[in-house]
Amino acid sequence: MDNSKRTVVVTGFGPFGEHTVNASWVAVQELKKLGLGSEVDLQVYEVPVEYQTVQSLVPSLWKQYHPLLVVHVGVSGMATTVTLEKCGRNHGYKGLDNSSFCPDSQCCIVGGPDCIDSVIDMESVAKRVTASGLGVAVSVSKDAGRYLCDFTYYTSLYLSHGRSAFIHVPPLGKPYSGEDLGRALQAIVQEMLELLDQAQEKINCQQHFH
């Protein structure tokens, strides 16, 4: 691994229910083709829609790559825009996954806080991407839906102290193509990295003066 490069891990989900082709994984594969520029080592993963796999996979991604940022992408049948999720929630997981399982505790991390916010200002990301004239509508949400998407996001936020993001995409063709979604993900993740850099510079400046 080239240590001068920053690593970003982006995940999409595998098929579930009526989503025999999951738009999130299609979008992530399109993003992989586009890349995030020569400075960023982009790693992509397809995540099966299973609570227990998420519980082991997410920590292993953080351990293996020590990424600057992990971005999870999921599909929402109700979404008509590319939606940035502000927070993950710990409780209320009653929906069964692809292996007909749901956690007994109905929560992600027993004893964890109810809700964890991303350190990334999603409103700011949405504004900046919209202003860039990408042609893909971007909105912000506070409810990732209490299924595998929300479960994965909370787990990642918990492990990374908020240095994760979650993006919901609409199903393919409603209205965007896989290529459109890939371009949107590229623009969004680049803005997120930009904001993280600015935050880091602020911290460094503050340390400098004290």
Automatic annotation (TrEMBL):
PROSITE patterns: PYRASE_CYS (PS01334), PYRASE_GLU (PS01333). It comes from Sphaeramia orbicularis (orbiculate cardinalfish). It comes from the Eukaryota. Pfam families: Peptidase_C15 (PF01470). GO terms for molecular function: pyroglutamyl-peptidase activity. Its EC number is 3.4.19.3. It is found in: Cytoplasm. Keywords: Cytoplasm, Hydrolase, Protease, Thiol protease. This is Pyroglutamyl-peptidase I. Coiled coil: none annotated. Gene3D superfamilies: Peptidase C15, pyroglutamyl peptidase I-like. The gene is LOC115417744. It catalyses: Release of an N-terminal pyroglutamyl group from a polypeptide, the second amino acid generally not being Pro. One of its GO terms (biological process) is proteolysis. The keyword Lipoprotein does not apply. Monomer. One of its GO terms (cellular component) is cytosol. The active site is at 85, 149. It is an enzyme of class 3 (hydrolase). Belongs to the peptidase C15 family. Removes 5-oxoproline from various penultimate amino acid residues except L-proline. InterPro entries: Peptidase_C15 (IPR000816), Peptidase_C15-like (IPR016125), Peptidase_C15-like_sf (IPR036440), PGPEP1_Cys_AS (IPR033694), PGPEP1_Glu_AS (IPR033693).
